[in-house]
Design a protein that fits this description.
- Keywords: ATP-binding, Nucleotide-binding, Transport.
- The structure is a single chain.
- This protein is α/β, with parallel strands linked by helices.
- Helix content is 39%, strand content 24%.
- It has a single domain, classed as Rossmann fold.
- A 6-stranded mixed sheet has the order 6-7-8-3-9-10, with helices on both faces.
- The protein starts with a strand and ends with a helix.
- The mean pLDDT is 90.
- The structure holds adenosine-5'-triphosphate.
- The site of adenosine-5'-triphosphate (ATP) has 11 residues, from β2 and α1.
- Adenosine-5'-triphosphate (ATP) binds next to β2 and α1.
Length: 250
C-alpha cells in the first residue's frame, strides 16, 4: 500500500476528532472523503500534511511513518502538496508570476538572484496555463479572475510544485455547476498521474471523480466503497445524505 493510515487518532483536550482511522490509498488513486460537518475530514488532511500531530497511530508512506513530521518537511521531502479551502495566491503578482514562483520556489537569496527564465521553464509554465485553462488570463492579477479561475490557478500552483500526493479541501466550494464540472475534469486529466485525496460535499462532483469514497462520521469510518456502494448504504443515507437533503429543503 502506498499511503496507509493506521489507527490514526487525534485527541483535542479529551475530544476525539479522529478516532482509530484505518485507510489505505493506492498510488495514482483519487480518494474522496465525505461526511457530515465536524466528522474529522479536514483534521485527517491536517495530519497527513503535518499541520496537526496525531495523538496516536501511523501515517505510512511507502512504509515509512511520517506521522508528526512538520509540514515543511512533508511538503518538501515527502512530496505531499495541499490546496486549502480558501484562495492562497499572491495578489500583486500576475497569474503567470504566481505559477512561476510555485515552479521555481526560491529557497535562498542566491537562488533568487541567479534565477533565469530558461526555455524549459517557459515550456512548463505554458503547459500548466493550458491545463488550467488560464492562457488568456496569464497577465491578469488574480483579483480579476472568477472564483473558479482563482481555484484553478491554485491547482496549477500545486501542480507546478510537482508533488506525488495532492490533497484538496473542498476544491469545488462556491463554484457554479459548470465550474464544478470543469474542476472535476481537470482533476481527472491533469492529476491522473498523482495520488489525490479530496474532501468534498458535492455528490455529483464526487461521482464524477471518485473511484473509492471513504465516509467519516464523528471521527470514525462509517463506510468505504465505490460511489454507488456508499450512496446506497443505508447508514450513510441516514447520517449524511438524508440530512443534507433535509438541510437543502429547509
Ligand atoms: N485545533 C482544534 N482544537 C479543538 N477542536 C478541533 C480542532 N480542530 C478541529 N476541531 C474539532 O474537530 C472536529 C472535526 O473537525 P474537522 O474540521 O476535521 O471536520 P470536517 O469533517 O472537516 O468538517 P467540515 O465539513 O465542517 O469542514 C470538529 O468538531 C472541530 O470543531
Amino acid at each position: 500500500m502506498y499511503l496507509e493510515l493506521k489507527n490514526l487518532t487525534v485527541d483535542f483536550n479529551g475530544f476525539l476528532a479522529v478516532h482509530d482511522v484505518n485507510m489505505g490509498i493506492e498510488k495514482g488513486e483519487t480518494r474522496v472523503i465525505i461526511g457530515p460537518n465536524g466528522a474529522g475530514k479536514t483534521t485527517i488532511i491536517d495530519m497527513i500534511t503535518g499541520k496537526t500531530k496525531p495523538t496516536k497511530g501511523q501515517i505510512l508512506l511507502n512504509g515509512e511513518d511520517i506521522a508528526g513530521k512538520d509540514s515543511y518537511d512533508i511538503s518538501n521531502s515527502y512530496g505531499i502538496g495541499r490546496k486549502f479551502q480558501g484562495p492562497n495566491v499572491f495578489d500583486e503578482m500576475s497569474v503567470y508570476e504566481n505559477l512561476e514562483v510555485a515552479l521555481c520556489g526560491h529557497t535562498s537569496l542566491w537562488s533568487a538572484f541567479t534565477y533565469r527564465r530558461t526555455p524549459e521553464i517557459y515550456r512548463q509554465l505554458n503547459e500548466i496555463l493550458e491545463q488550467i485553462d488560464l492562457t488568456e488570463q496569464r497577465e491578469m492579477l488574480p483579483r480579476f479572475l472568477s472564483h473558479g479561475q482563482r481555484q484553478w490557478l491554485e491547482m496549477g500552483m500545486i501542480l507546478a510544485q510537482n508533488p506525488d500526493i495532492i490533497t484538496l479541501d473542498e476544491p469545488a466550494a462556491g463554484m457554479t455547476d459548470d465550474e464544478t464540472f470543469k474542476t472535476g475534469e481537470m482533476i481527472k486529466s491533469i492529476m491522473k498521474d498523482k495520488t489525490v485525496i479530496v474532501v468534498e460535499h458535492d455528490m455529483d462532483f464526487i461521482k464524477q471523480i471518485a473511484k473509492t469514497v471513504t465516509v467519516l462520521n464523528q471521527g470514525e469510518i462509517l463506510a468505504e466503497g465505490t460511489y454507488d456502494e456508499v450512496s446506497h448504504n443505508a447508514e450513510v443515507i441516514r447520517v449524511y445524505l438524508k440530512s443534507d437533503d433535509e438541510e437543502e429543503e429547509a
